[in-house]
Design a protein that fits this description.
Layout lengths: L8 H14 L5 E3 L3 E3 L12 H10 L3 E11 L8 E6 L8 E9 L4 E4 H4 E2 L2 E2 L13 E10 L5 E2 L3 E6 L5 E2 L5 E10 L1 H9 L1 H14 L3 E4 L2 E3 L5 E3 L2 E5 L2 E9 L6 H14 L4 E6 L4 H9 L3 E4 L3 H27 L3
Parallel strand pairs: 18-19, 19-20
Antiparallel strand pairs: 1-2, 3-13, 4-11, 5-6, 5-9, 7-8, 9-10, 11-12, 14-17, 15-16, 17-18
Helix pairs in contact: 1-4, 5-8, 6-7
Length: 328
């Protein structure tokens, strides 16, 4: 994603909702795909994934919950390499690690090689055969088999497994991997965006030249005036539409409330748009009461389904026009 291009609003909302449901977005790594956020895979962010998250963090929608800094290859920028130990004196990589062992009972300390025999570990001072409980490791060092130099810590060189570039801590690059949580600002954005969703759906209806009236209201048999989020008009027919927007799955009580409104108003043409998806109970009730539902946890899915619905309305209007005039 070019640096000047901002993430789409629908993508931002989808990421926020996913992050809230997971409590935290954690990075993962595999040799095949490198570093990514597996929990966002179904959002199809592709190569723009990290840039989306950085942009949202910059805008205060996400906060860093933890950061891991890695060394990476300066040529291919991957963090897939092996560490090679080299002698600090001669630069060769023929090193042997030596532990300093102490026989606890007598307090005798010698290099591990002095304890090791064909029969296992034997104290070179008292001759007792040792079990793991009889000794402890006091420390360790490395011995170069080429020049004999002893050193507490050899120098590290890294070899990239992707392109075989050799680099050190100084010449290598750093890679910053971040886990995120949703900030208070991000939560507030989700709480307020039902109006934005209705606005976007209204724009889609306008593009398809379907008449839309926001805040459509009608009096019911009970005398109560019921308000729908908007209505869609095609020919002489009107479709009432409600949008249910919540943080979690829409439950059955929301479906019952919609059905009660339909019974009181005798409305037959009705569409319910649900974000996120319906709970199993809500789906069963919607099916039982024959309520037409568009549901999704990504705005692209809702928009795609809504456009398909609008196109179906246009086909119905055209069909009615043909039947009335007899002209194709």
């Amino acid at each position: 994603m070019p640096s000047k291009e901002e993430p789409s609003f629908t993508k931002i909302l989808a990421i926020l909702r996913k992050a809230i449901s997971l409590k935290e977005l954690k990075h993962s790594w595999s040799r095949e795909s490198g570093f990514s956020y597996k929990d966002l895979a179904d959002l199809d962010l592709g190569a723009d994934e990290v840039e989306y998250l950085r942009h949202m963090h910059k805008d205060g929608l996400l906060i860093e919950s933890s950061v891991t800094t890695l060394l990476s290859c300066p040529t291919c920028h991957k963090a897939d390499y092996v560490a090679i130990m080299v002698c600090t004196k001669c630069g060769q990589s023929s090193l042997k690690k030596e532990n300093l062992l102490e026989h606890k009972a007598g307090g005798h300390a010698h290099p591990e090689s002095a304890f090791r025999t064909a029969d296992g570990l034997v104290c070179p001072t008292c001759g007792k055969k040792l079990t793991p409980a009889d000794y402890r490791i006091l420390g360790s060092w490395y011995v170069c088999e080429k020049c004999g130099a002893k050193q507490p810590q050899p120098k590290l060189t890294f070899r990239c497994l992707a392109d075989e570039t050799l680099f050190t801590e100084t010449t290598g690059e750093t890679m910053r991997l971040t886990d995120y949580k949703v900030s208070e600002k991000g939560v507030k954005m989700l709480e307020l965006d039902k109006q934005t969703l209705v606005k976007q759906l209204a724009a889609l209806a306008e593009q398809k030249r379907v008449k839309l009236v926001k805040g459509f209201s009608i009096s019911g048999n009970s005398g109560i005036t019921h308000v729908f989020d908007f209505s869609l008009q095609y020919g002489n027919h009107i479709y009432a539409v409600d949008v249910i927007y919540g943080k979690d799955q829409v439950n059955g009580s929301s479906i019952l409330a919609c059905y009660a409104k339909l019974i009181d108003t005798n409305i037959k043409n009705y569409l319910l748009i649900s974000w996120p998806q319906l709970s199993p109970e809500a789906k069963a009730l919607a099916s039982h009461y024959n309520i037409k539902v568009i549901e999704a946890s990504a705005f692209e899915d809702i928009e795609r389904s809504f456009v398909a619905f609008l196109e179906e309305l246009q086909k119905m209007e055209l069909s009615q026009s043909v039947q009335t005039t007899g002209v194709v």
